[in-house]
């Protein structure tokens, strides 16, 4: 179960929210450590806890017809997190520009060592599903205005003939309150695709870096094709709609030596 501090919201300020998470049995894989997707779930939960603590809960967004969606992320796994570990978790808005905001999440082991960090780019959409400008109240409350940032992108070449293909389907259990496949589910999918292509050691290595771009939402019952192939000492993954061929998601997995160094915002 989640640590009691997490349920109560933990420590909050206008720019930072901190809490803890205990890695549950069902969140760990056969190796007894937290699945990579669990880190994205924590980061998403942290964002909502922070927003709600400052008065911007689901009802606030519903009244205004606004919603945040994850468009891109950079996740670095520095060390494995064993089942039962209580992780210190922190989120902060580190940049905000017109229609998107970047959050940095950091996760620390009980001794204080960095286990993982993630930059997540969220875009704000209106009731029509169109990008909309972030209200000024957000920059006033969360900070980050004026930072020189650009939304994350993952550019991949065409899938080579030697690429491995794995069929997938969006199950009801994959859906979130937006009725789309949750952004964390994509981490499970790309790791399945890489493992099926012979990259099991890559998804178990530490440190490792994931670069993720969410191009289109995966709708309920959609049939997908996950293509994976090696390139530049890493792995490329493309998730496409099986019928239309449209890219839904693009990702890159690579080693991340020295990735724990730039953690100034997490102190």
Outline:
This protein has helices at about 5-10, 35-55, 60-65, 135-140, 185-195; strands spanning about 10, 15-20, 65-75, 85-95, 100-110, 115-125, 165-170, 210-215, 225-230, 235-240, 245-255.
Overview of this protein structure:
This protein has 267 residues and is α+β, with helices and mostly antiparallel strands. The protein has a single domain, classed as Hotdog Thioesterase (Thiol Ester Dehydrase, Chain A), CATH 3.10.129. Helix content is 18%, strand content 34%. An eleven-stranded antiparallel β-sheet has the order 1-2-4-5-6-3-8-11-10-9-7. The longest helix is centred in the N-terminal third of the chain and has 18 residues, at 36-53. The protein starts with a helix and ends in a 12-residue tail after the last strand. Residues 1-9 and 261-266 have low confidence and may be disordered.
